[in-house]
Design a protein that fits this description.
The chain is mainly alpha-helical and 411 residues long. 75% of the residues lie in helices and 0% in strands. It is built from 16 helices and no strands. Helix 4 crosses helix 14. The chain is globular, with a radius of gyration of 20 Å.
Length: 411
Amino acid sequence: MTQSPLPAQDPDAGAEAARFSPKLRVLLGTLLPANIAMFMVWGATASLLLSLQIQEIDPDNKETNLSLVLTVGAFCAMIAQPLAGLVSDRTRSRFGPRAPWIVGGALVGGLALVGMGLGTTVWQIMIAWIAVQIAYNFAQGPLSAVMPDRVPSALRGTFSAIIGLGLMLGMVGGQMVGSLFAGIALVVLTLFVALNPDRDNRERPRDPFDLKVFLGGFWVNPIKHPDFFWAFTGRLLLNAGYLMVSTYMIFILQEYIGVSKERAIELTPQFALLSMAALLVSTLVAGPLSDRLRRRRVFVMVSAGFLALALLVPLLMPNEGGMALFSLVSGFGFGIFQSVDTALISEVLPSKEDFAKDLGVINIAATLPQTLAPALAGLIALNFGYALLFPIGIVLVILGGLAVIPVRSVR
């Protein structure tokens, strides 16, 4: 199998050198279903199935138990992503460094999801969820490295928009297809690998594993790599503010809005569809527009404004209509963010030789909020009520938008 070198093109190549080749068109077309398949896992589990399964086991302690399971699982994911990236960067195979982990992670993750579905205690569910997090992060980390591997800088806004669109469509799709998503993910990711063959890299020298270097990679030095640090901080804060509410959506509908469990289950995918509709518009416009304008940071700041506005709505309208409007506006804002965030991140990576590891480290900015936000949100909800989640989320997303201002290497 053959492919273009790693990275495929100079990341600093201009627009003239960055025209869509046939391989890039195939890559663009297959990245969408690949990311939909990947994020269907998180959409179906963390957003809906896991919440309902835990509530069924122990209704009186659902917030505490969900917080515990999500926190432990996300902590494991936080470690797994950089490790997966490091292993992927150093993998030598006839299929290249990414493909074995993408397919293998999807297979093991699917088996772990079956085990989670069979769990009858919180501890069984937690153990299975840890396995799910580790396995799928070993697939997601290498998948996220495909763009900086092969896509020139001038086209990354378009590719980032497709990745962001896949994220939200997957989150919605996972809620709608339920237990079928594990098999769908395995099939689609395998097809992605087959249609985008990597080169045989068995002859490429492999750097020795250095534990000290790996552990040091968890620290983002703001002096040595300030742009990487600020991009990391922006992603961390925006995700934390958004997850403060979205992680507890089904409980917010029951406890804050006051609907029944059955009504909450009915409304959750409906609101997700509203988010998806708004996201389709913002993602497909913002990503290509950021390529045309050669701007990334302003789009992040605009997305933070929309997310802050969305989080304000349920405070003023604590009813089903308010939550519907929240879903619509937050989908629009998060679509803008997702459409340019990956492109921005890919342009501030410290090393061209360790794309997957560096992306794994910066993806901590997405997984760490999954650790902190559920624990913090659960604590706040139990002691002060769900209403306080919204103003805290507003502060976090605004700070996240402001954090990208100091980034200098990306306009």
